[in-house]
Structure formats: structure tokens, C-alpha cells
Inverse folding.
């Protein structure tokens, strides 16, 4: 039996881009993935197919597993010879009970490694515009936890030491005991006017920040129903927030946007929306599958050098074609003198990825425009054209090319099918929470979103990448609130920004 290993990995404070490269590598290597409540579900997409995913989340009043059971789980899986990645919010050794888990692994004779993570003690304040250290304000940083073992008879928080210590104090956990803790600090001599900030769901687009003083922050939190998970910051550095509040000032901050694409393609749009502050999440409605008739498709690819033109209408078609091409041929020159036309910059970019040049790309990103662009290049009469594209694609392009005298061979390169899994929980999240906006980048995403039969949510806006997608949306009674003037991802984002700038 191979020797197992357990990686105790800090998943960071919530922003998926704050996961370390080594942390991602550990997720990708894992046979067993054991993850917490505070771990961003987006991390699950890095796991290999077939990995054993075990949720052991703990939050106040609701424990999936007791800590002792978690310890036994990671030890037993490691002793089975598995690669176990124990994913923990923040840093595993900063109030994350990672030390206890490491001790159990060591006592059982298991190999283990510690992979530090970005702690919310520093990242949370930073995303609220609060530097925990600053030359003009402090020379010390103290981090403590307000959450204690409920079985202890007395508190272990040394209020007198905390109150007398200079510099910034950061409290992890303990928001539910905020009134007791702030009263204890005041009784120990900390000034009532000490600035305090609470940062909830720090580094995510759900982030909320509440500012007050030691004297009134507990009452403000109660009035606002401010709940965990949250970080508390005590000290003069809180006053810098009004100048340095960069994250909550982003143009789409707080907007919840569901992205309906394939799981592989949603990441690009989600990432760009998150950079603008949106609470963007993947809700894959379609999955790309290979051509149903592989032999017919591969025969067409093999004879591609015998055509005058190749026309690609989507990046998926490009990927399907060249994947097949390089399985058949080893040399790119085997494509011969065939010329290439592509609809849209994303499709052209995929062609360039395979080191081929695009000869024709229409200014407008719809099928009808490719005909006019080709006519400017050459007569269409008797031109032999190969059109590899999706199963069930519109007939407009091949019909019109045939009418103009071209000889068209249309071949199914791939097909889109409804996505049946919900690995990142996006569909369930939309079902329970809804969204401010749902984006659609193709007719198939709209069709399959409709097929999910999700409950209606008041106030949701629907955004379309272009007129063909909009037409499909209207067929399913989805009002088109936004239609991108430029029918690509940057064009869609530009329209979303304009839409919210007017609100």
C-alpha cells in the first residue's frame, strides 16, 4: 500500500484568488478533500474528477462533525494510503485547530505538511481599507480570539494585558460575545472612544463593514443584526478607512451576478466581474460533449486540407477541430492552404492559440456577417467550405452560403447538453438566494436555465451577449434588460457597468 500524506492547507479568507499556489496544487493532487464552512466553494473546481469530497463545516449551533471525528477521519484516510487535503479557512495554525490535527497525525505516524494560508486577521481589515500596521499610528499588532472553549470555567482573555498593550488589536471570532468583550476591555482601562471596525465575510463580495467605538460598537452590531463570520479591529488605524476603502468602492460591489456558461468557460466572466467587486458565481447550465458521430467528424477533419475555407463560429468548435486534427496529424502544415474565417474575437483568439492565422473576421459577431465579409474576399461560387460547429446550430449560415453557390459540408464538432451536476453549489445558491442579475452568453445557456425550472425571484435582471441569445430568452419569457452592443465578454461587461451606473 502506498504511503499516504495529509496536507493541512490554509484556504485563505474567502476571495478565491487569495488561495496560495501550493494550496491549489494540494487540492489538485488530493484523493480525499476535507473542507470547512469558511472555504470558498469555488475551490472545489480544482479537484480531480472522482475525488472524495467531505464537508465537515462547523458554525455556531451547527456542527457537521465534532473536531474529534474530523481528527479520526483525516488520520484514517491517510493511513489508507490516500493523499488527503484538509482545507481550512484562513491559516491552519491561527485559531484554526490545525495544531491539534497535526498532533493527531503525528501520533498516528502519518506523514503531513502544513501549507500556510492568508489569514483574515490581516486580509479582512485590508479589504475594508484598514492597514493593521502603520508607521504613524502603531508599532505593534496583537491578534486574539474571542471564541473560547465553552467547557472552561473562566475566561482566558487577559483584558488588562490587552487594554494596556499599545498598537492595533484584531479579534477573530467572538462577534456573538462582542458586548461582553468590549465591556471587559473598557473595565480594564481601554479608552471608550477607541475606534473599532467589524468586517463580515471579509474579502468576498458579500463583505460588510461596521464602524464605531469601543463604547458603542456592540449596540450598533446588535441593531444591524451583524453576525459571524467577522473580524474586529481595535485601534486608530480604523480611521484610515475613509481614505483607503478601495474594495467596497468598486463599481459592482455587492451586486450578486449568476453566470450561466459551461464550468470550463464560466471562470473568465466570473473572474472579471469579481475584479469589479461583484459577488459573481458560476451556475453552469450546459456541458460540452464530443461529436456524437466521432468517425464522421474525424473524417472531415482529416480531409480539411481539401477545402478552400474553414469557418469557425465558436471557440468550442475551434477546440474540437484542432484537438481532432492533432490526433490525426503531427505537423500543422498538413492543414494545407485552406483559409480560415472566424466569428468574433474569442473564436479568433482560440484559432491563434493553435498558431493559425484568421483570414476573415467580420466586424459584427453574428453568422450573417461572415457572408458579407467572405464576399469581399472572393466569389463564393463553387467554393468548398467546411463548417464544423455545434449540433443543432441555426441553418442561416449554411443555407445562405449554399444559395450563393458555395459547396458546404457541415459537420457536428460538439454538442451542448444540460449540466446535471452542481459541484460549486451555484444552482442551489440561486434557488435559495436569487441574484441581482443572470448573464447568458448563448442560446443554449438560456434554454437550459429555463429547463432547470428555478423559482422566480423578484428584482432579477437578465443580460444577453447578443441578439440571437436575446431572441431565445424572449421565447422563454425572460425579459432582456441588457444586450451587449459588442457581442463578446468585454462587451457584456461594459453593458453591465453602464446598467448599474445609472441606478
Amino acid at each position: 500500500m502506498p504511503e499516504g500524506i495529509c496536507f493541512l492547507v490554509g484556504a485563505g479568507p474567502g476571495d478565491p484568488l487569495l488561495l496560495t499556489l501550493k494550496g491549489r496544487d494540494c487540492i489538485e493532487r488530493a484523493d480525499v478533500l476535507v473542507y470547512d464552512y469558511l472555504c470558498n466553494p469555488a475551490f472545489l473546481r480544482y479537484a480531480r474528477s472522482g475525488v472524495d469530497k467531505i464537508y465537515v463545516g462547523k458554525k455556531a449551533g451547527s456542527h457537521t462533525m465534532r473536531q474529534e471525528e474530523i481528527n479520526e477521519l483525516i488520520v484514517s484516510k491517510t493511513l489508507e494510503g490516500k493523499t488527503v487535503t484538509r482545507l481550512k479557512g484562513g491559516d491552519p495554525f491561527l485559531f484554526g485547530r490545525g495544531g491539534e490535527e497535526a498532533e493527531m497525525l503525528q501520533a498516528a505516524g502519518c506523514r503531513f505538511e502544513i501549507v500556510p494560508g492568508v489569514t483574515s486577521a490581516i486580509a479582512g481589515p485590508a479589504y475594508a481599507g484598514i492597514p493593521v500596521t502603520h508607521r504613524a499610528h502603531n508599532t505593534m499588532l496583537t491578534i486574539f480570539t474571542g471564541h473560547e472553549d465553552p467547557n472552561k470555567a473562566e475566561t482566558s482573555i487577559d483584558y488588562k494585558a490587552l487594554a494596556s498593550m499599545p498598537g492595533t488589536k484584531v479579534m477573530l471570532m467572538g462577534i456573538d460575545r462582542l458586548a461582553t468583550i468590549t465591556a471587559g476591555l473598557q473595565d480594564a482601562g481601554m479608552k471608550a472612544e477607541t475606534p473599532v471596525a467589524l468586517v463580515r465575510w471579509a474579502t468576498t463580495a458579500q463583505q460588510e463593514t461596521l464602524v464605531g467605538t469601543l463604547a458603542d460598537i456592540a449596540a450598533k452590531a446588535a441593531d444591524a443584526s451583524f453576525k459571524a463570520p467577522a473580524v474586529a479591529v481595535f485601534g486608530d488605524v480604523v480611521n484610515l478607512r475613509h481614505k483607503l476603502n478601495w474594495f467596497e468602492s468598486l463599481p459592482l460591489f455587492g451586486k450578486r451576478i449568476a453566470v450561466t456558461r459551461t464550468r470550463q468557460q464560466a471562470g473568465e466572466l466570473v473572474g472579471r466581474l469579481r475584479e469589479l467587486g461583484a459577488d459573481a458565481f458560476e451556475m453552469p447550465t450546459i456541458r460540452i460533449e464530443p461529436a456524437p458521430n466521432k468517425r464522421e467528424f474525424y473524417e472531415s477533419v482529416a480531409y480539411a486540407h481539401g477545402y478552400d475555407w474553414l469557418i469557425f463560429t465558436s471557440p468550442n468548435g475551434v477546440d474540437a477541430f484542432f484537438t481532432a486534427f492533432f490526433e490525426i496529424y503531427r505537423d500543422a502544415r498538413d492543414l494545407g492552404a485552406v483559409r480560415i474565417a472566424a466569428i468574433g474575437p474569442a473564436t479568433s483568439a482560440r484559432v491563434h492559440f493553435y498558431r493559425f492565422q484568421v483570414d476573415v473576421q467580420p466586424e459584427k459577431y453574428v453568422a450573417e456577417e461572415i457572408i458579407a465579409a467572405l464576399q469581399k474576399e472572393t466569389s463564393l461560387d463553387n467554393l468548398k467550405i467546411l463548417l464544423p460547429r455545434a449540433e443543432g446550430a441555426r441553418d442561416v449560415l449554411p443555407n445562405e452560403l449554399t444559395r450563393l453557390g458555395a459547396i458546404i459540408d457541415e459537420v457536428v464538432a460538439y454538442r451542448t447538453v444540460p449540466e446535471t451536476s452542481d459541484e460549486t453549489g451555484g444552482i442551489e445558491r440561486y434557488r435559495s438566494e436569487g441574484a441581482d442579475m443572470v448573464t447568458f452568453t448563448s442560446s443554449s445557456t438560456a434554454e437550459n436555465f429555463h429547463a432547470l425550472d428555478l423559482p422566480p425571484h423578484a428584482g432579477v435582471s437578465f443580460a444577453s451577449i447578443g441578439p440571437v441569445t436575446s431572441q431565445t430568452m424572449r421565447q422563454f419569457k425572460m425579459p432582456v434588460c441588457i444586450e451587449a452592443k459588442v457581442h463578446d465578454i468585454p462587451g457584456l461587461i461594459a453593458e453591465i457597468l453602464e446598467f448599474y451606473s445609472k441606478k
Remarks:
- The first helix runs from residue 21 to 29.
